[in-house]
Amino acid sequence: MEQQVIILGAGFSGLSLAWRLSSQGVNVTVIESGETVGGLAGTLKEDGYCMDVGPHSFFTEDDSIRDAVLGLFGNRLPAQPRQVKFYYEGKYLDYPLTAYNVLVQMGIGSGIRTALSFLKSKVFPRTRPLAEDQDETVEDWAISSFGEHLYRTFFKPYTEQFWKVPCSELSSRSIPTHTRMSFFNTLFLLMRKRIGSENASLIEREMLPTYYPATGFAEIAEKLAGAARDAGAVISLKCEASGVDSLPGNRMGVRYLRNGKQAETEADHVVSTISLNQFINMLNPPPAPVVRSSADRLDYRALTALGMVTEKQNILNCGYIYVLDRPYNRITEMNQFSPATSPAGENIIMVEIPCLKDSPAWTASKEALFNMCIGSLAEDGFLGPGDVKRLLLVHAPNAYPIYRKDYAPNLKQVLDFINMQDGISTLGRTGEFMYMDVDKCMRRAFDFADNQLVPMLPH
Predict the structure, then answer these.
(1) Got the DSSP string for 135-148?
(2) How far apart are CA 241 and CA 262, in angstroms?
(3) 3-state DSSP call for residue 321?
(4) Is 326 in a helix, a strand, or coil?
(5) Among 18, 83, 15, which residue's Cα sits nearest to residue 219?
(6) Candidates 1.10.260.40, 3.50.50.60, 3.30.200.20, 2.60.120.10; correct CATH number of 4-38+216-298+404-456?
(7) Which of 60, 249, 322, 395 has the smallest number of Cβ neighbours within 10 A?
(8) Alpha helices in 39-107 (DSSP H)
């Protein structure tokens, strides 16, 4: 009997899994609610304009993943430099944040205050008892690691601007690994510049060669989808999954809407890469109330991205800039990634507006968002109202898992339930509530197919 798997979601995790499984002779169907593939790493393509859902570039220390992706392009995807800045108190700092940024680029006064505050945090450490089911918060971690001054002037405003949650309510896991490193380790790594370990830190990963397709990052997803289809996978777009049913004979069924009509399909196994809370609420029979309650407490932060088409060029002099105290937290210049993302002579400046679903920034029109942002862009010398000839808008409802300080027991409750069920699994950044870059999503999908899913399928 032919093995059959249904995958919910055609982002990088779902597509990588579909490619790997179909290449091994498994009958795969991917059900995707959107009109295109790529998910959170997709690209809006409209009248010759290509705008990513946030800036992406492909980089990895995993040779086999790099070879797989480059092979999809016939090894004709050239490497390019990756330049990122942080705009802080009128100064452009190198990103990721390093000891050099804080002690030199921020200015001597700020450097002295930071150093004294840092020493104070070591002489008089801040300690608070933690509940058994709670993580250390961003507030406690940042003050004990970097001192009160840097926390108040940098970590607190940026973190709360990005997450829309107080630092006292966020798990320190919200802070990326490269930022969690000590200044001394960071400075040592920058001087050493050794790349290639399997578990390279994120700051080391920032130094790796990067790759970007001509017309948007979603070209990689489209190549993955093409490879999966060539191996026999079926990828059904504009299909909204509405239910996942346990059927007799250890089979699983998926109900979905296609062109307004109810449809059904079944398989030996269903793998979800969609949000955990959405997936849990699709299951029939339904999980126990405690599982559904835990799933509902796992939140995702949304993203609104506004693109402004302009004829101005070389505006940022880098790919993107992180900013503080603006309506947006990041500005991207698409032509810095590839001039082919716009018609000749044009360019796209994109601002990312962090928000929660159903907040004003989520529901606002692109004109309202433009009016909200253009004053700051003009004040900082990037764009004026007369420079913009067209607006583009994209939404991502589940862009980032929010690691609240009590997220861990809720996540464990949900994943323990899923792992005890026959016929269902979750995978990927959204499906596992785990922040991962694209290459990590691909590696995790390949390993899941080879080491877990294929061995458990009926033969």
Answers:
(1) PPBHHHHHHHHH-H
(2) 10
(3) strand
(4) coil
(5) 15
(6) 3.50.50.60
(7) 249
(8) 63-72, 99-100
Would you kindly state where each structural domain of the chain is located, as residue ranges? 4-38+216-298+404-456, 97-198, 300-401
Contact call for residues 252 and 35 (beta carbons, < 8 A): no
d(CA 19, CA 65) in angstroms, rounded, equals 13
Burial of residue 264 (CB within 10 Å: 0-12, 13-18, 19+) is exposed
pLDDT per residue as tens digits for the range 143-153 = 887 788 778 88
Element spanning 52, H or E? strand 49-52
Q: Residue 19, SS3?
A: helix
| Cα gap 115→431, rounded to integer Å | 41
Tell me how long the chain is.
459
Is the domain spanning 300-401 CATH 3.30.559.30? The answer is no
Chain mean pLDDT for the chain? 88
- Please list the alpha-helical segments (H only) found in 333-459: 334-337, 360-363, 366-379, 407-420, 428-431, 438-448, 454-456
- Please calculate the CA angle 272-273-275 and round it to the nearest 5 degrees: 95
Quote the DSSP letter at residue 333: E
Reported as a pLDDT band with limits 50, 70 and 90, residue 191 is very low
Listed range (87-91, 201-205, 207-211, 348-352) with the worst mean pLDDT: 201-205
C-alpha closest to that of 45 among 218, 276, 267, 244: 218
Strand (E) or helix (H) holding 427: none
Beta carbons of 155 and 114 less than 8 angstroms apart = no
Q: What are the φ/ψ torsions at residue 121 (nearest 5 degrees)?
A: -65, -25
Phi, psi for 418 (deg, rounded to 5): -60, -45
> What token pair was written down for 255?
């109900």
Could you tell me where the beta strands, DSSP code E, fall in 75-225?
79-80, 84-88, 91-94, 210-211
389: its two tokens: 């000839």
DSSP conformational letter for 286:
P
Measure the CA–CA gap between 225 and 16, rounded to whole angstroms: 8
Distance from C-alpha of 286 to C-alpha of 209, rounded to nearest angstrom:
46
Number of Cβ within a 10 Å radius of residue 234: 15
Asked if pLDDT for residue 90 goes beyond 50, the answer is yes
**Reported confidence tier of residue 104, pLDDT bands at 50, 70, 90:** low
- pTM for the predicted model, two decimal places: 0.89
* Half-sphere exposure (Cβ direction) of 393: Cα atoms closer than 13 Å: 12
Distance, in Å, from the CA atom of 397 to the CA atom of 19, rounded to the nearest integer, reads 26
Question: CA–CA separation, 424 vs 69, rounded Å?
Answer: 28
pLDDT value, residue 198: 44
